[in-house]
Amino acid sequence: MKNKLGTAVTLGFALFAMFFGAGNLILPPFIGLKTGDEWFAAIAGFFTTGIVSPFLGVLTVVLFGTSFTDLGRKVNPVVVTVLALLIMLCIGPLVAIPRTGAATFEIGIKPLLPNFSNILFSFIFFAVVLALSVSKSKIVDIIGNFLTPFLILSLGILVTVGLLNPTAVAQATNVTSQQSFVFAFHEGYQTLDVLASVIFAGIIISAAIDKGYTNAKDRFKITIAAGLISMVALLFI
Predict the structure, then answer these.
(1) How many domains does the chain have?
(2) Which of 13, 50, 77, 232 could cross-link with 148 by S-S, CB 3.0 to 4.6 Å?
(3) 92 domain residue, yes or no
(4) At what angle do helices 22-35 and 39-47 cross, to 10 degrees?
(5) How far apart are CA 170 and CA 6, in angstroms?
(6) CB neighbour list of residue 126: distance below 8 Å, 6 or more residues apart
(7) Does 201 map to a domain?
(8) How would residue 146 be classed by pLDDT, with cut points 50, 70 and 90?
(9) Range of 38's domain?
(10) 87 CB contacts (<8 Å, ≥6 apart)?
(11) 113 or 139, higher pLDDT
(12) Rounded distance between C-alpha atoms, residue 4 and residue 2, angstroms
């Protein structure tokens, strides 16, 4: 069994990177634009549904087993199976996957290469994704040890440049703190992390088992530690 702290950091960073998708990149600036100086209430609203709720999803799965379908022991197994299918469709081909490719192209490629084909980019982008994720046993280590540090560094540079060299002066808004909280609370669901959490939990738990955490109590502790690390990283960004 590897060092617990190192394992928790790797799993936590991997979970953070899995949660941090196109919605997490697009929605917070959009919420900030709409709520203006009531940003604290907005952060509280987004934190509730975009960060805490996904953590509760991970917690639920690890309490009852090793995957989302284990919840079928508490409710009707058919309902859980159908719900799992719907979740996979939402966080996969119907919403999250196209949104991830589109956001990457619109934000990262189009401003630099306006004439580059979006179809060609999609083929290249998803080929790279496939190459990185095809190995079930290595995907968590690849994400946690390599992709996440690069992601955090890139986001850190983006945020720092935005703070030091803003493109516009902050504008006051007429929304109240209550309206800001409610607006951000609703928008937080659009990250789809609440749905994804119960699926991602199985991936993290499986990785923990591969690293030697076969005992249910130890697996619970390391998964919760990873979840807390991912929450802190999400809140910070």
Answers:
(1) 1
(2) 13
(3) no
(4) 150
(5) 40
(6) 101
(7) yes
(8) confident
(9) 4-71+137-236
(10) 68, 195, 196, 198, 199
(11) 113
(12) 6
Helices (H), the chain: 4-19, 22-35, 39-47, 53-64, 77-89, 96-104, 118-133, 139-142, 148-164, 177-188, 193-210, 216-236
What is the pTM (predicted TM-score) of this model?
0.80
Of 62 and 173, more confident: 62
- Beta carbons of 48 and 188 less than 8 angstroms apart: yes
Of 2 and 185, more confident: 185
Residue written as tokens 């960004």? 237
- What is the length of the chain? 237
In a domain, 102, yes or no: no
Within a domain: 112? no
State the CB neighbour count (10 A cutoff) for residue 19.
25
Residue 229 has pLDDT above 60, yes or no: yes
- SS3 call for 106: helix
